[in-house]
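name: query_chain
kind: protein
chains: 1
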Amino acid sequence: MFARQLWEAEAGSTPIHRLDGRIKLVLLAVLGTGVILIDSPRTLFLLLAATLAGHTAAKTSLRRWVLLALFLLIAAWGSMVSQAMFYNQEPRNPIACLIAPATPILGRLTDGVYIYQEGLAYGAVQAMRSCIMLTYGFLLCWTTDPRELLRSLVFWRLPYELSFMAVTGLRFLPVVLSETATVITAQRLRGFAASKAMSPAGAVRTAFRTLWPVLARSLRRAVTLAMSVESRGFGSSWRMAAMPPLTPGGKTALAGCLAAALLAGAAKLLYVFQFNGWAHFAGCRFVYDFARQWL
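structure:
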């Protein structure tokens, strides 16, 4: 997990690697909007399966699959458990009791803590939203060179300063993890025993002993980076070289992606108007049925 190569983008010849960074950013924006507007668990599951298929097409290594699975399990577990415990809609059917209402102090303060069946289902839907963006985010970072990502962000008129800081943040994360691995190795060479960190107090002490050296080394790197970019005219009127125009295939893919997003958005909007009684069009019954089942 602390290996720097595990987090950085790697070159490849797969269709995902060759896909233009500008199109990848558009897909990111479309997915980010779609997971908010789409309520159908079936469609969300298909989107999640599609993003996972992207990793298969990109020939993601086994170590990265394990890392991705770890993050997905944490996201899904946290969302489902929190929603199952704090679901407040009706109806709700408890399937387990964690804290009975008769329990002193906590039971009286909370009126009991239960696991609700409807909360688990609702949490699963919310978990799929998070997992879709998490999966595609890893795919974007692992298959796109940071320089191409920076140029793509600037191409879509994002301010250069914000684009540079976003890409720098992505590049800095592997560095921080590498520094953490170095600090942990140094602690082990000095006689650190993992068994002493198993207790809560030991875990806190170990975390602080790791945090301060990592923070100090990261600050030194940040100062060096700031001096470097300042000496090269960061924030001035300097402009990067223009990106080459999109290929005909890239333009077709971009147009298809935007057209599908606009059509889905229009169908969702028509369904919302019909559902709330604001407007109804007799000739749009197919659109209403499609939106109800898939959106």
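note: The chain has two domains: 1-144, 161-233.
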